[in-house]
Amino acid sequence: MYNTIFKLFTATHLFIYRLSGGRISGVVQGLHVLILTTTGRKSGKPRTTPLGYFKHEGGYVITGSNSGSNHHPGWYYNLKSDPSAAIQIKNRHTPVRAEEVTGDSRHQLWKELIRISPAYADYQKRTSRKIPMVILRPSEDR
């Protein structure tokens, strides 16, 4: 049941975002929203999801919180399999390359995320996994 509701919510969010060019549904929990399109690691089909992000050194930082569940989101595994993806911010489409952030850089970006959107600290408390952070850098790959 949860998966059905989540899929419906995501589809509705994508529809409204695209229809309004990001003017509606463009900010969630203090973060701006981008639309990430990855290639499904099993299906090979495009997989699209709205995600909160913040800018960092010319890239876009996204977080695999999955609302604090005990497993990483599907888009994270898709990017691990194929780091080439595409994003839409408002009406602008950009090919990107994903890179997981680790070590001290991750620690600093996590602090910035919590400053912008404190709810992410609660997500980390709900799970024993280390929530991944990924930076999407514009590329010419797609």
Describe the structure.
- It is a single chain.
- The protein has 142 residues and is an alpha+beta fold.
- It has one domain: Pnp Oxidase, Chain A (Roll).
- 35% of the residues lie in helices and 35% in strands.
Could you give a short description of this structure?
The protein is of the alpha+beta class and 142 residues long. 35% of the residues lie in helices and 35% in strands.
Largest sheet: 6 strands, antiparallel, barrel
Distance between the termini: 35 Å
Estimate the mean pLDDT confidence.
89
Q: What is the general shape?
A: globular
List its traits.
142 residues, alpha+beta, Pnp Oxidase, Chain A, 6-stranded antiparallel beta barrel, 35% helix, 35% strand
